[in-house]
Every structure is written in C-alpha cells, then in structure tokens.
C-alpha cells in the first residue's frame, strides 16, 4: 500500500471588503514618490531646454566659430 500524503490546505479566500484587513505595505518607490516626481520633472525640463538650444540656427552655423 502507498503511504498517504497529507493534503494541502485549500487556499483561504480573503474578503476584499473586510474592514479588519491590514493595508498593504508601501514599497520604497511609493514612499519616495514626491521626490521622484520632482527629480523627473527637473530632468525632463533640462532635456527640453537642451533640445531647444540645439535647434537654434546660430548654433549650427560653423562660420561663427573662432
């Protein structure tokens, strides 16, 4: 005879609307959201300013170079 293996417990169903449920832990990215948004906005602004400066016609005229 085969030895009987213990049966796995069926997965417990959690109630999504249970008041007693603890909120999920915040990830480190969520904890630093405001700082990340600020840094990304600064980076994007610098990129836009650089692209605008590169597109000015006087920056592409080689005759003006010393």
Strand content: under 5%
Q: What overall form do the CA principal axes indicate?
A: elongated
Number of strands: 0
Number of helices: 2
How large is the radius of gyration? 30 Å
Poorly predicted spans: none
Structural class: mainly alpha
Separation of termini? 95 Å
User: Helicity level, as a percent range?
Assistant: 25-40%
Q: Largest sheet, if any?
A: none
The sequence of SSEs as H and E is HH
Question: For the residues shown, what is the average pLDDT?
Answer: 75
Task: State the gist of this model.
This protein is mainly alpha-helical.
Question: Your description of this structure?
Answer:
It is a single chain. The protein is mainly α and 66 residues long. Helices cover 39% and strands 0% of the residues. The protein has helices spanning 28-31, 33-54.
Features:
mainly alpha, 0% strand, elongated
Topology:
Blueprint: H1 28-31, H2 33-54
């Amino acid at each position: 005879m085969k030895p009987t293996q213990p049966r796995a417990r069926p997965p417990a169903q959690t109630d999504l609307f249970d008041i007693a449920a603890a909120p999920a832990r915040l990830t480190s990215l969520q904890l630093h959201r405001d700082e990340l948004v600020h840094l990304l906005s600064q980076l994007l602004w610098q990129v836009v300013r650089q692209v605008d400066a590169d597109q000015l016609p006087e920056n592409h005229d080689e005759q003006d170079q010393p």
